[in-house]
Amino acid sequence: MNIKLCPAFILHQRPYRENSLLLDIFSEQFGRISLVAKGSKQNKRGQSGLLQLYQPLLLSWYGQKELCTLTACEADGPRFILKAESALCGLYLNELLVRFLPITEIDSSRLFNNYKQALDALQSANHNEIILRLFEKYLLNYLGYALVLDHEVETGQLIDDQQRYYYQPDSGLYRWRQGLSLPSISGRSLQHLIDEQGFDKTSLNEIKHVMRTVINFYLGGKELQSRQLFGQLQQYSAK
User: pTM here?
Assistant: First the structure.
């Protein structure tokens, strides 16, 4: 594979051997790719200065899909500047992509655009909770785990704003009953998520708990480091 100037973002980087970096990237045409940026730790200017989170890039590389070699890097616009809580939200999106996206070389242009729009919205720090919930929804759709939210699994009955439900990740939506350990959600809140508008504090809180249940299910119980950082921030803010 020899790719020339593909739009991409860096999701994560870490040292590799003596002077190189190992990059997890999210590319528009090929999804998630692992790249080696040779000599990047020595070269503090030019190419290596662009290898930052939230920087739109045009990347070139060659090699096998498991591990490729970066050959060229150009900026594809100004870097998104995420501050305070927005910076943690950005780390959460990146971690979701690293954890969930396989290295498959499958076109991911729609999800790539969703990610770019999310970064733009986080830069404005405008309704971060909504940004995260919608991106989780788009990611699940892309992975083939789309949430069926408009009707009950057992009866086929359409949701009612006044009723309460719970979501079973491997099957779908059910009517809530006492004694269940899964979080409940109103039909009203479900409709907000379906319509992607009309959110308020109550619906966002209910949607957050349901989405966390679904994400945790597909993570297989593995913890997200970005969630731990959120928890630490909340504890610090409460002092």
Answer: 0.90
